[in-house]
Specification:
It is built from 40 helices and 25 strands. With 1138 residues, the chain is of the alpha/beta class. The two termini are 28 Å apart. InterPro entries: Beta-barrel_MTR4, DEAD/DEAH_box_helicase_dom, Helicase_ATP-bd, Helicase_C-like, P-loop_NTPase, RNA-DNA_Helicase, SKI2-like, Ski2/MTR4_C.
Amino acid sequence: PVSHLCADLPPVGPTDLPLSLLEMGCSVVYYLILSFPPQLPHGLPPTSLNLEAEVEKQFLRDPAWLPIHDTDAAFQKDVRVDSLLNCTPSSLHSGLSVIRDPTTGMLLDFTEVLLEDTGLSAKNSLSLQRQPGPPSESLRGSNTNYPFLPDLLRVPPGLKAGMDFSDKGLSGNHDAVSSSSTSEKGKDVKSKPQEDPEENKKWAIPVNITSPCEDFHKRIPNPAFKWPFELDVFQKQAVLRLEAHDSVFVAAHTSAGKTVVAEYAIALSQKHMTRTIYTSPIKALSNQKFRDFKNTFGDVGLLTGDVQLSPEASCLIMTTEILRSMLYNGSEVIRDLEWVIFDEVHYINDAERGVVWEEVLIMLPEHVSIILLSATVPNALEFSEWIGRIKKRHIYVISTMKRPVPLEHYLYTGNSTKTQKEMFLLLDATGNFLTKGYYNAVDAKKERTSKHAQSFGTKNTSQNTSASQDRPVWLSLLHFLSERQQTPVVAFTFSRTRCDENARSLASMDLTTSVEKAEIHSFFQKSLSRLRGGDRQLPQILLMRDLLKRGIAVHHSGILPILKEVIEMLFSRGLVKVLFATETFAMGVNMPARTVVFDSIRKHDGTGFRNLLPGEYIQMAGRAGRRGLDATGTVIILCKTGVHDMGDLHVMMLGKPTVLQSQFRLTYTMILNLLRVEALRVTDMMRRSFSESHRDTQAHEKRIRQLKEKVSSLPPLDTEGQLSDLVPYYHTVTELRITTEALQRATLESVNGLKALSHLNALGVILQVSSDSVNRTFTALIICEKGNEEGEGNGPNAGALPHLYNTALFIPEGPCSHTVQKLKLQDISAITVKTLKVIPDRIIDNYNKRQQPRFRHDPPGQAISTATQELLRLAEANPGGVATLDPVNDLQLKSVDVVEGSMRLRLLQDSLRDFNCIHSPTFSEQYARVQERMGVQEELDKLLFLVSDQSLTLLPEYHQRIKVLQALKYVDSSNAVQLKGRVACQISSHELLLTELLFENALSPLAPEESAALLSCLVFTQNTQGIDRVLSVAQRIGELQRECGIAQSAEDFVGQFKFGLTEVVYCWARGMPFAEIAQLTDVQEGTVVRCIQRLDEVLKEVRQAARIVGDSVLGSKMEKASLAIRRDIVFTASLYTH
């Protein structure tokens, strides 16, 4: 603190004595101090100890000088052995219970009652009946705690009987609830429960919100919470479901009033004395909700990475990551939890953090009801079905497409005072796409560009313009809008620098009155009064103050957090008239405007430029129109260089929003946290994830049961004596069949050789090949016995044993006849070398003619009888089988599969002759039995595989990650978590790298500021002594992951650590003011602040980890580093939380 003191002293004046003189003191007068003056808190300064004590301390008490024989004199110490015997008392295993007189209630006696489960604690049990842990751990839990198992208590403690939660009550109960809600719904539901409830138990139940809900006040006479306005139908339906304690999924547009559902749940839990957790994806959103709910309910707490306000409140607002760590660490809050509200659920699509939502949903215990609030998504039902299935409870899906304030979408082509009114309606409030408006816009634009092109030569067609080119467009547009009183306006711009430039280019614009200016000024000063003097003079703050006074503001991640909040608050009061914002403004912050302007409809998504997705467009456009203030909201798309493509616009405005997709992936933290507890398995987590929700395990299991019964009911196999090799024979035949089919496919799909065929050992000739390449059919003429022309099997051999791969040809025994059939690929077994000359068209026509009843008995035509004779002659000439074309040599099919297949085929055909079972008299019926049994068995095995862990998509990656953990000694060979693993559980991101650095003592030689600077690479996301160390550890982990088969390359793994802010953080930790730091880097101020805030969380985690390892020096060093960076503007408390 000395430097600060000096800074506050006035400069040295002429009267001040030089410091050296003051230090020496005045050498003339001596005072004798008899009583201690009150000014010195610790008495007089220390004098030197007496000599004797000094000598004794050095020679007698020093272990090196101790006498060898007479040790008693050296130790005069009272020995207290019992101090070693301190252990915590074990819990009582019995309690007293009172016996009363049943009539009078008098006390008669006490009896001793044995208590059950007294040994359960957070360290050994997953049950909700375990003893509460120490109060210090009740909120966040501890990383040695077990989580609570996601299941239900059947019997309450102390009671004999409990609830039966089995399904039999479920269908009836749910029937009663639904049928009472609205008459129409009752009709659908009443007809259902007659079927077996197991058959089609749908977990997601769509709620019909078309019919008004008249009996709402009858059914809820005294609601837990009353609103000053009448609720919409969808809100009433949701409230009814909450009263019945059901889980709901509400999908509606922003500003449709989803918050009502959350508010009712909070009110209910206050009424029931339980707790509610409200989670949101973004910290800013959490802060805002905290303020809103605090005003409404009062009893509200906030938990984010760096803030903890009233954690004992009944409603806790937190980010999803914190809820996840509470679940893993078995926090006591979970016991009292009634509702968890997930806001902005469509965030589950976020590649980076979507997995956290899934983990939380999977880990929540069953007694917690879930409320999901989301923007409109097409697959709400599918998503709810998944949650219902893993939670085993119904989820009521309420989705509404209605907007309380309808939107009108315009194209704007103006760019000067003359053309400022050029605004064309493209999509009206009822959702009709008006092509006329589009063409008008094109014409208006063309008229100008053609003149422009004549005077300036070639036309500039690129979409990109500079801020100076945009300036006239913005000026004319904002002028036009403020004349029509269409402010406040949000202008979405997809680049931070562009936001700043656009705002700066409007230097001449002033949109506020003098009264508003005064209000803005006083609010701005009041909000920033917390900052230190130097921080108030930051260039960004001065610039923003200038802009705000004129009613203009900028909002993106590069703006300081406190400024962002000032801007949001001024905007919601309507004092900011134009806000240039990036997409993040639409994500969470609930700040509707009258008008939304799109600067462009293309954005950069980290890989390249693309058009906005319908979901993104709807989310942003939805900010237009304030409920109760505007009749319609206006959305304007700027056409700066030319009018956007009509197809693109149509897709963007009317396309389907993005579906919810699983971003589930394995993280080391998740694996270690689950391995820590024997009862939880990582595969269970994977099986329950949304990415595996397509596995309809219930249906599979039902089919498995049926098949198992079928197998047990089949007659036993007779595999004695001659039939002993029946089963291997079956397997050989099966393999032969599969190989043959593969070969046939290859042969017949190849271009070469489709001439003549021998089919089922009956000769036939191909007449015509269909052109359809997917299901190609061959029309063929085949010889058969007279009277058997209609036979499905084309000849008698089909009904017999197709497995007897004998090559003897079929020769009709009676008079020879023929049939013409369409064959599939599988029906053709080989192609002969011989070819016949036939006239296909005539044969087909003749055959088709003779299929009609009146020509049934005509003799076959000339063409057919010739062909039949030829085929018969061929068959009689070579009874042992005709020479067939070899796919490899004759047809020139040289691909590996074909070559291997044909070799395998020869082997198998030869091996068939060696089986004994063929000669058995009962062979055919036994074989049929085997075939049936094996068919059932194969289907069963396939289903069992689908239900088993082996079919999980992420299973190979799980094994690879376990290999990495074993190689780094985080878990041992039996997957028990070791010390390193315990440390890594503490750390939420980059757990391997941090733990390795910790165990290699890489941070020990560094000063606190240096270690803070070094760790900044873990939290900084844009593009310097210990850096090599970090990179080498990262390289090592990256290479190990490659070896164990994980797809990420070592370069990518190392590349994610960026050292751009190392110097900045170092200077900040050394105490440099923020204004100077901002000069050190071109990274925007807001980004720096966020990086330092996240760094503080990392330092806390490392401190925790160091404590587990027992490295107290490192722990205190991290604390020092943390204190060094927690100051001034970076850690100013949010305005919303005051």
